[in-house]
Design goal:
mainly alpha, transmembrane helix, 2 domains, 10 helices, Integral membrane protein, transmembrane, elongated, 3 strands, membrane
């Protein structure tokens, strides 16, 4: 009977697809769960209200925006002081969370290609509107009796939450991943099962399949680190690098947790399967005992 020569070749192709689709499944689920979903998004961005780098960036951007409209001696120091006090107060996290909750639908509109009032995209920059900061500063200075406080206009203070010249590519990727987040893991599992089913040595192929999943997660970890480094390196001087890093790390944290979990689980499974394969081989090839 002719041996099925095609089986190893098909198994290799299927496992190569697993290496690509396994990490894409993680990214797709992250996109759907932590970017599209309001509660998932808020769970990531709400703690940033207490991040020192984000607070500093908001203070500087708001101070610059306000003092650019009103030219009064010493106003910059007063505005900066009041903004620092406000963003470090217990009231700011609630303001930050409320602003992000209201803006989330618009944010999703941005990554799908449609900018809105609360969140806009222009020249690859995604900015969150924090107009309430100007009102808070004017009210605080007016209560302190600062001359000219009433002249501070209610301006649209914006905080840059993302900036990249590749925004169009990211929009296309987001739409594709968000639509296929539930399908990709299913396809990956089918490919794994098919590769093992058609292989001549199923235990050995299962071991290789587990290593392929681990490899895919390792490649995703490397890609995430490269994207982070490149993103921060390409930031313009007007954007705070520490704040941008804080936002990136907060949004990417669930993806990192998931990929490292799968990498450890897959590699551990490969070790167990390899041990079982070695043990089974020894049993099969153990010489039979001679009887007296």
């Amino acid at each position: 009977m002719t041996r099925a020569w095609w089986r190893p070749a098909v198994a290799v192709v299927l496992l190569a697809l697993v290496v690509m689709l396994a990490p894409l499944s993680v990214v797709a689920r992250w996109t759907h769960t932590h970017v599209s979903d309001t509660d998932g998004y808020l769970a990531l961005v709400t703690p940033l209200a207490e991040n020192a780098a984000v607070q500093s960036a908001i203070t500087e951007q708001a101070t610059t925006a306000i003092t650019a409209r009103v030219d009064l001696p010493g106003l910059g120091a007063l505005v900066r002081s009041q903004l620092q006090r406000f963003v470090q107060s217990d009231a700011f996290p609630d303001v930050w969370k409320a602003a992000n909750r209201e803006a989330h639908r618009q944010f999703v509109g941005v990554v799908t290609g449609e900018g809105t009032r609360e969140v806009t995209v222009e020249d690859g920059t995604v900015s969150l509107s924090l107009a309430g900061l100007g009102e808070a500063v004017r009210q605080s200075l007016d209560e302190r009796g600062v001359p000219g406080a009433s002249l501070i206009p209610i301006i649209d203070v914006s905080f840059t939450i993302f900036e990249s010249e590749h925004i169009v590519t990211l929009q296309r990727g987001f739409r594709l991943l968000d639509r296929t987040w539930g399908l990709l893991p299913f396809i990956t599992a089918l490919l794994l099962a098919a590769a093992i089913a058609i292989a001549r040595s199923r235990l050995r192929t299962a071991t290789i399949a587990a290593l392929c999943v681990a490899l895919g997660m390792g490649l995703l970890a490397i890609a995430l680190a490269v994207v982070r480094a490149r993103y921060l390196a390409e930031l313009p001087q007007t954007v705070s690098a520490p704040a941008a890093a804080a936002v990136f790390d907060a949004l990417a944290a669930p993806m990192r947790t998931t990929l490292w979990g799968w990498l450890i689980a897959a590699f551990g499974s490969a070790v167990v399967l390899a041990a079982l394969g070695i043990g089974w081989t020894r049993i099969v090839h153990r010489p039979a005992r001679r009887t007296a």
